[in-house]
Amino acid sequence: MQSGGVLNAFASRFLFRDIVVIFSDILELAYAQGEDAVRFIIAHELAHVKRKHVPKRLITFWGSMIPFVGQVYSRACETTCDNIAAYLSDKNPASGLLVLLAGKKLYSKVKIDTFLQEAEKEKGFWSWLSEIISSHPSLSARIRNVSKT
Q1: For the segment 82-139, what is each residue's pLDDT rounded down to a tens digit?
Q2: Of residues 41, 80, 73, 75, the one with CA closest to residue 57
Q3: What is the pTM assigned to this prediction?
Q4: Contact by Cβ (8 Å): 121, 69
């Protein structure tokens, strides 16, 4: 899918079939020697399909009406798919997340240890609130998680 520079991919269902949509800029990244990053992103989205997260969202929809419950489930799904993708990635599982963080030209220049040290300094109420109302864990939490696996 053409995205106008947006780096993303997602799993969905269409006419009772599972689909994975990958924005074209991510595939351009693979062409430019970013195979590890693309491998992680594709594995993450296929993990959503394998774990049946999309159809389960229809079942859990009513639970999402209760404040924070839907976000907790969504963050758990994202963490599960990150872990599966990290397991399937060969060299640098964090590279797929670093692309989302810094973009397709700068992601390879990010020093993960330095980034995570700086992220640790940003603790507090506003960071906690941002995390708790989000559908995805923060990128720093996701990078820290896959860097440990």
Answers
A1: 999 999 887 788 888 888 888 878 888 888 888 888 888 878 888 888 888 888 898 8
A2: 73
A3: 0.80
A4: no
* Strand residue runs (E) in the chain: 9-14, 17-22
Angle (CA) 29 86 24, round 5°: 25
Place of tokens 């440990």: 148
Give Cα separations from 139 to 17, 43, 53, 87, 133 (angstroms).
29, 17, 20, 18, 14
Residue with tokens 């994202």: 78
Token representation of residue 50: 């394998």
Q: Which residues pair with 13 in a beta bridge?
A: 18
